[in-house]
Design brief:
19 strands; 4-stranded antiparallel beta sheet; globular
Length: 262
């Protein structure tokens, strides 16, 4: 015979439950590589701008009072942060919980809008206890895959990029190409994963560790870029359409964001 307690527990299991927001983990180096402005600041209460739609969509615009700038173009004491909230959608960023709290903001420019910024991943807002870690990461190389506007990533012509916030930085961990091979200099790490999340083994002899101690110079205005053809280094032939994922850098903890290509 069912007890009242059992019926209540069963009803909780049957009723639809809210889905928790899901964001892929991103180490500090990966978030910083995409950032254009890094500040210590406090978000003020934002303005809410509801859209005239059937489904409730609200654009928020708030001001970050800048206490200290760590990297990026100069700002005069404050910058504008924007984000959008869709009612009933779980996997989204809502910065209202950060209002009034001092923190570290790793910001990107809002596409197509001058003077406004976005922070579209939870790792873009960091606690004050990480100031030293952020400052240290800013002094090092930042690893990316160059993505020109309007162009999709293709295995034949991916451009690996190293950028820096510093005026000038000598880098010993980089990739070069020679005679159809990828050469990994210094501690460079590069990984391609299949759709199942497992790393692909490179073709024999196509990715080699450089024996010399060469270096490249990266500046704020001139990142280091090298175009690679991953089809030569990995067997990407499939009888079906598969999405691959690329990340590179010094290690899985000091790396680029993960990029998808087909």
């Amino acid at each position: 015979m069912w007890t009242v307690r059992a019926i209540l527990l069963l009803s909780l299991l049957i009723l639809p439950q809210p889905v928790a927001a899901s964001f892929a983990e991103m180490p500090l180096s990966a978030v910083l590589a995409q950032a254009e402005l890094v500040v210590v600041g406090t978000l003020q209460a934002p303005d809410a701008l509801p859209r005239p739609t059937g489904r409730t969509i609200t654009d928020f615009r708030g001001t970050i009072v800048v206490h200290r700038q760590l990297a990026g173009p100069p700002v005069k004491g404050r910058c504008v942060l924007t984000w959008t909230v869709v009612q009933g959608l779980s996997s989204q960023i809502d910065h209202r919980a950060a209002v009034g709290q001092k923190g570290i903001w790793l910001l990107q420019r809002q596409p197509g809008v001058s003077g406004r910024y976005v922070a579209d991943h939870p790792a873009c807002v960091r606690p004050m206890s990480e100031v030293a870690a952020v400052e240290a990461a800013i002094k090092g190389p930042l690893f990316l895959v160059h993505t020109p506007p309007g162009k999709e990533l293709r295995a034949c012509c991916l451009t690996l990029e190293i950028r820096t916030f510093l005026p000038r930085l000598e880098v010993r961990d980089f990739v070069s190409t020679a005679r159809g091979k990828l050469q990994l200099h210094g501690r460079t790490w590069l990984e391609v994963q299949g759709q199942n999340g497992k790393p692909l083994a490179p073709r024999p002899g196509r990715i080699v560790r450089a024996a010399d101690a060469a270096s490249v110079v990266v500046t704020r205005e001139r990142p280091h870029r090298v175009e690679v053809d991953l089809r030569r280094a990995f067997d990407l032939r499939r009888g079906f359409r598969e999405v691959f994922h690329l990340a590179w850098g010094v290690s899985p903890r000091q790396r680029s964001p993960s990029y998808s290509f087909q």
